From TrEMBL:
Region (Disordered): 41-61
Any matching Pfam family: CoA_transf_3
GO molecular-function term, one example from the UniProt record: transferase activity
SUPFAM superfamilies to which the protein is assigned, alphabetical: CoA-transferase family III (CaiB/BaiF) (SSF89796)
Transferase in keyword set: yes
InterPro entries from the UniProt entry: CoA-transferase_III_domain, CoA-Trfase_fam_III, CoA-Trfase_III_dom3_sf, CoA-Trfase_III_dom_1_sf
Record's protein name: CoA transferase
Keywords carried by this UniProt record: Transferase
Top-level taxon: Bacteria
UniProt keyword annotation of Transferase present: yes
Amino acid sequence: MPSQALNGIRVIDLSRILAAPFCAQLLGDLGAEVIKVERPGAGDDSRSYGPPFLHDRDGNPTRDAGFYLSCNRNKRGMTVDHSKAEGAALIRELVAKSDVLIENFRTGVLAKYDLDYESLKAINPRLIYCSITGFGQDGPFAARPGYDGVFQAMCGMMSVSGLPDGVPGGGPMKVGVSMVDILTGLYASNAILAALRHRDLTGEGQFIDLALLDCGLASLSHYVQNYLISGVVPERRGNGGFGGIPSQTFKCSDREIFIVASTNKQFGALMKVLGKPQLATDPRFDQVQKRIMNRDELLAILDALFATRPADEWLAELEAADVPASAVNDVSMVFDNPQVQHRGMLTHAHHPVTGDMPLLRNPIRMSGTPIGEATPPPMLGQDNEAVLKDLLGYDEARIAALKDAAVL
């Protein structure tokens, strides 16, 4: 059974790629009815972002890449060519019966088809219209295209990621995951929920203008705030943190582990595990601020100590001493973690082509309106007839005419 938290909310998802579809997926996870509208024939660009592609029951690749599958569960699927007058009119009919519209076309594109906010507000004053673009609706860059890596570079995220200059492999580095896209999707879903609450109180819809550049910059948080109050540009520290010390990876005799022992209590426990309890009271290291100031000296000592034994031996002792630590896992190891298994982060859905399909579970847990079983990402246009019949009351002849006109 799907979540009931957003039961009764209908979302028209005109978006593609990642940030905006991810936002719509979150709303679908929470129980909203999400209707994903794609281009006939081609669909969402991300369907082709493979390999890998989903395989059918016979092991043959389908047209749907893992990228697409990652951000389109819990949606119904339609194909509509909004560049045709009949297609744009159909979308306006859907909007008249909906609560939220999400789109990520370049600024001004949808206005050409009377699918911009002002046009749709006239049809449905209660509509929440969320536009996600690279640079926002205004400003000197508003018309530019952009993708996650561009924004990681522009907002400063790359400048604080990676190894320091002067060491092998040093230099700015992109975060592996499309982090600006993911963060923008989270910001967008929060904004939509707030706008729905405001509409509940006032009856008024509104326009939400979200820019990936803004969201990427906002996500730098304490890195930027530290700069604003000090004027000092943050340096790259590789796998080291910017809080207390130590907070980073260490190479054991077989593999790497990550440790955070930033408080005095944690640092003291760590020193006992390492067989150097005297370092906890050493005047160079006996306070958080001193450990930060003497970072390089302390890390050289810790590097040498951790290198003497294998990771599992250190991790067992660190856990017993209540020092936060983990092996550095790759994705293939994550689902062997007993805590990940207990929390059920791997779920499954029944896909009409492939059968059982593994999916990541939404991590939100709610006592009153829990998130239920997921429906698989829709195949291209799979719900065309059902939506047109059930929601708009179209008959077979009208649907056939739209197909003949290549609107669907």
